[in-house]
Amino acid sequence: MKECAANSALFFTGDKESTLLLELRKGLDIPIIFVDTGLYSEELYHYLKLAEEHWGFNAIVLKDEKVVEESTAFGKEECYKLLKEKVVVPYLKKEEIFTLIEPMKVEKAVVKNDKVKEVHPLSGFSELEIWQLIKDHNLPYCWLYTKGYKDVGCEPCSKSETSKEEDEEEVSRRLKSLGYL
């Protein structure tokens, strides 16, 4: 397994899938890449620091404000692809990293048979299975989920299932009944 980790990097977005990927990476020397769009909530930045402490890594933080401006005009999937294509992949090529381990699978590969291969180890897992593994292994996760968020990422793309009137206790109760927590 360690040979597979050579020349690989993990794309961390702060979502539940990223959390599980961090746990799967445990014991392997795989760098963690985080694209800082500047559009994340304080909770997500706090979770990045918590994850760095828990799993013992220092994220490689990439930022390109021009690309971020361009990417936010599209939906979540298009934004993700654009950030990969214009920020992550150039970094990987420069560093001679040939495999990108990702939490999210988009319909079309961004790295069209170029030097970098995309790997999606969680693509066959359901949302419930991911939450069950997080619970079973007592893994820390971004607390936005306890506020009713179904997706965690940049604020324009993060989606809350709650209205502002619902309190956190009700959200937590509902998520637990659905098997999320």
The Rg value, from CA coordinates, equals: 16 Å
Strand % is 5-15%
Shape: globular
- In whole angstroms, the N-to-C terminal distance is 30 Å
What do the pLDDT scores average to?
A: 82
User: What are the segments in which pLDDT stays under 50 over at least 5 consecutive residues?
Assistant: none
Helix fraction?
A: 40-55%
From N to C, what is the helix and strand string?
HEHEHEHHEEHEEH
SS field, number of helical segments: 7
Provide the structure class: alpha/beta
Question: For the largest beta sheet, what order do the strands appear in spatially?
Answer: 3-2-1-4-5
Number of strands: 7
Query: What summary fits the major beta sheet?
Result: 5 strands, parallel
Description:
By secondary structure, the protein is α/β, with parallel strands linked by helices. The protein has 7 helices and 7 strands, in the order αβαβαβααββαββα. The chain has helices at 2-5, 16-25, 42-55, 65-71, 76-95, 127-136, 168-177, and strands at 8-11, 32-35, 60-62, 99-101, 117-119, 149-151, 159-160. It has a 5-stranded parallel β-sheet with strand order 3-2-1-4-5, sandwiched between helices. A two-stranded antiparallel sheet has the order 6-7. α2 (16-25) packs across α6 and α4 packs antiparallel against α5 (76-95). It is globular and about 45 Å long. The model has no long low-confidence stretch (mean pLDDT 82).
